[in-house]
Hints:
Elements lengths: L6 E3 L1 H9 L6 E4 L3 H6 L7 E2 L5 H4 L3 H4 L6 E4 L4 H12 L6 E4 L2 H8 L8
Parallel strand pairs: 1-5, 2-3, 2-4, 4-5
Amino acid sequence: MRQETPKPLSVEELNQWLNNKAIKPFVIDVREDAEISIAPFPQSHLNLPLSRSEEWLDSLRETLPFDRKIVVLCHKGIRSWHFGCWLIEQDFKQEILNLDGGIDSWSLKIDSTIPRY
């Protein structure tokens, strides 16, 4: 069955996955550079600022791994959800998940050292 929209993923679930060596999600942060300078995501990830899509769009299929779950995040989870929907519409076969509440929720529930904005 084809995925219709990104599956929601809680920050607690993502934190567990990132601490479990058997599960290796591929994390994409679609926030802008200024946002990341305020509140960087503390784990390994790929930054694809939506405003600069012309820089990465043509190579996206070669950039994303085909054997891992894709977790998309932004500030609150709205832009990442839209980007996840776009990935599904473009027929990416990976499982696409959206981080509920984005980096803001991560700061509130997982790592309070990350500033909120």
